[in-house]
Amino acid sequence: MSKESIREQLIKLNRLYKKGNDRYYETALKLGISNSALMIFYGLYYAGRSCTQKELCDTWHLKKQTLHSALNQLIKSGDVYTESLSKNSRIKSIVLTEKGRDLYEKSTVSFLQAEERAFERLTLEERNMLLELTTKHTSYIQEESEALMLKDEIIRRK
Fold first, then answer.
1. Sheet of strand 51-52, all strands in order from the earlier edge strand to the far edge
2. What would the pLDDT profile of 22-54 be if each residue is shown by its tens digit?
3. Which residue, 31, 70, 86, 157, could crosslink 37 as a Cys pair with Cβ 3.0–4.6 Å?
């Protein structure tokens, strides 16, 4: 396959990813929260329980500082609070307030259920293929980017 056709396919793929990500951004905007705050709700929804910041960062590949900023926004708006899980006050669980639960159930849950319905419209074989190929592609991207870092071919900003 020619480099040009690979490049064209990659452009199409990245545009599709961007288009999908825009749905989350637009939903967060309508809810009056940041995209990162939506990801906190997203993580809580799929966990089915309160979670620690570390759990959300590890599971959803969120940057610690990004999550912390979004969490502070949600605390300030009265949508969540944190509570210590142990004697170590640094480990805190993120808990929805009554106000946050209302926003979460009326808006976020509906959006995430729509996402599930959209995924369910694919056949089981298509869903498995999509997951398998996305996993494979992501793994290759990670391998290639790590190889670049090892070769020190990326020009760093000074």
1. 51-52, 92-96, 80-84
2. 998 998 898 888 899 999 999 999 999 999 999
3. 70
Q: Which residues lie below 8 Å from residue 99, measured CB to CB, with a gap of 6+?
A: 78, 79
CB 133 within 8 A of CB 118: no
Residue type, 96: L
C-alpha 82/C-alpha 90 separation (Å) is: 10
The rounded distance, in Å, linking the Cα atoms of 34 and 119 is 24
> In 60-129, at which residue ranges do the beta strands (DSSP E only) sit?
80-84, 92-96
pLDDT, tens digit (0-9, with 9 covering 90-100), for 108-155: 898 899 999 999 999 999 999 999 999 999 999 999 988 887 776 666
